[in-house]
Amino acid sequence: MERSLSHIALFAALIAVLGFVPQITLATGVPITAQSLGIMLCGTVLGAKRGALAVLLFLLLVAIGLPLLSGGRGGLGVFASPTVGFLIGFPIAAFVAGLIVERSRAPIGLAAGLGAFVGGVLTLYAFGIPGMALMLDKTLPEAALLITPYLPGDLIKVALTGLITHSLARMRPDFLPSRR
Amino acid sequence: MLALTSPVQTPFHRLPAGGKLAALAVFTFLLFQLDSPTALALALVAIAALHLPGGWPFAAHALCLLRPLWPFALVLVLWHLWTQDARGGAIVLLRLTAAVAAANLVTMTTRLSDMITVIERLAAPLARLGLPPRTLALAIALTIRFLPVLSDRLTRIAEAWRARSPRRPGWRILTPATLATLDDADQVAEALRARGGTG
Predict the structure, then answer these.
(1) N or C: which end of chain A has fewer CB within 10 A?
(2) Which residues of chain B have pLDDT under 70?
(3) How many CB pairs under 8 A join A and B?
(4) B138 and B79 within one domain
């Protein structure tokens, strides 16, 4: 119980801190932040349930008024903005990523990369695109077009999630909460 | 760690947090029912008028919080100029701005401690699912406490990297940062258990 609680709370803080890391601007001019990498890592490192809870805790802190989303955004307003679908998708993305790592028999790095892709890209976009379509009154293909510039950055983060989870598993072989 | 609550005191600061949240929910629901630009413009003016008691610094803070909407406003303007549907664009833009501004107003006029009290009350039924409100409050407090700790840790890892390498610290510092978080979490768990656990 204490262990789950402290993992959830500290990883919620990690997601926030990764949002403070300065943004890197891709060649396409689109800024990428490490925050969604933190969401993916929550799933692949903590596992489905605890990963999703860590993300929910993070969103709770954002909702009650802490400026923890990348770019210093926060408060209730972000839940009325066009990106609300992504926020709703965040915990589910972490859950799916964690589930894949828990169930897969593939080497941990590959499993984490696959989990990050299915969770952090496919699942997340499945919530983010309809959310944006609804908020901006656009069709689904139009909304999808609006977020395509983010795809390269997200694919980089998928690869990084695989690499980082792989290194963590090597450094703490019987430690990774998602593989126990 | 600064919350987004405005230091400028307004009459809204004294209203109960639960009431403000309920009013916000109703207002946002109504905004999505309206589809005339005039009505939505009036709603936006009404929200703007609610900022008057706070004076200029309060309004400036509110405008600052609306800044993340600029890219979307730009996309909407360009898009609707192209499709020549100014009315549709005006509706979406006004509704979006009014909804976000109203939500920000609640955030700016409600203290963090009041929000946490509301959360604890709302989360009370979760006790039956095995999540007592006290555990949730502990989790919130732990996360807030560890924000500066982890932020500091990340800075030190980046500095150590710069001391060793002429290249910029890129994603490579994320592995030690995550590892440190895992190790910290284990120590926090032991400390909690030594002090009688979460129960």
Answers:
(1) C
(2) 1-2, 199
(3) 172
(4) no
